[in-house]
Amino acid sequence: MGKLVIYYFSGTGNTLYLAKEAARLLDGALIPIVSTSDNEAVCPDTDIFGIVYPVYYNDLPAAVKAFARKLRHIEKKYVFALCNYGGCGGQSLKTLKEIIRSNGGELSAAYGIHMPQNAFKKPWVNNKRLINKSVSKIGKLAAAVKAGKRVVYKNSLLDKVLIHIHESLVIKVKASLAGYSGLTAETELDALIHSADRCFQATGNCTGCGLCVRVCPAGNIKLKDGRPVWLGRCENCLACFDWCPSKAIKGALVAKDYYYTNPEITASEIMAQQLSRNKASKA
Predict the structure, then answer these.
(1) For the chain, percent helix, then strand, then coil, each to nearest 5?
(2) How far is CA 218 from CA 35, 129, 273, in A?
(3) Is 60 exceeded by the pLDDT of residue 109?
């Protein structure tokens, strides 16, 4: 079988930071989830593989959900998952476990790591301390994976509450996203997520540098007359907003004057996701 692989999706760098550290400790290869977007099926050629992702709206990002549904021939494989979150793992690991099981596999180990929030400011949180603490947690994950241990994610009280009220949260999220996109709240959640980019616009600070185009893992932005245009397949990852060197993007999805990118990750590393996606689509 092939080398251990870790599939990841990252917008502002926290997930990539964790995935890189896990890959280093496990001597694994990193594969951007978006590079499989055009695949009808994803068949990992390894006995062990991991999925590392951020938690959006108390659940899996739309791209990660679509990826998991494509997994095939994963019976008897050791599958581990790591979510990074600003609050808790919520519904995400439950959703992932159910999808993997529906495809004939089992989630062997599940982990969650608290990382800095990229959507809004938490003045009481020390971002540097969170990042430093994550290193030891990744070490424990790697040791468990090497030993083939079965690890169950322990739900915190917040996890339990948010899982219990998840359906009610979805209704509220859909109502908000419908307001951003101009669609109705009866529209499917993923469609609302993709269309929420209608709220984005570039201010007069925009220089037309095109960095937003290149960092978008979904390939959802193009330049028209030197200005960004969003194409309706947004993942709500906020990469365009947070990586913009001119701070020229605004919209209802983002907090005013709060910007975050993981200090250990570069824009070029985030760009590699879209490059791998483009390369795969041309293959």
Answers:
(1) 40, 15, 40
(2) 10, 30, 9
(3) yes
Separation of alpha carbons 183 and 254, rounded Å: 19
- What the block records as the tokens of 146 is 């090497």
DSSP letter assigned to residue 187: S
Please give the DSSP secondary-structure letter assigned to residue 77: -
Q: What is the pTM of this model?
A: 0.96
CB 188 within 8 A of CB 180: no
DSSP secondary structure letters along 27-48: T-EEEEGGGGTT-S-B--SSSE
> Distance between CA atoms of 144 and 148, rounded to whole angstroms?
6
**Which amino acid, 176?**
S
Q: What is the pLDDT of residues 47-94, one digit of tens each?
A: 999 999 999 999 999 999 999 999 999 999 999 999 999 999 999 999
CA count, 13 A, side-chain hemisphere, 241: 23
Residues 243 and 16: their CA atoms lie apart, in Å, by 15
Taking only the tens place, the pLDDT of each residue in 136-172 is: 999 999 999 999 999 999 899 999 999 999 999 999 9
Asked whether the beta carbons of 130 and 115 are under 8 A apart, the reply is yes
What contacts 24+ positions apart, CB below 8 Å, involve 125-129? 127/260, 128/263
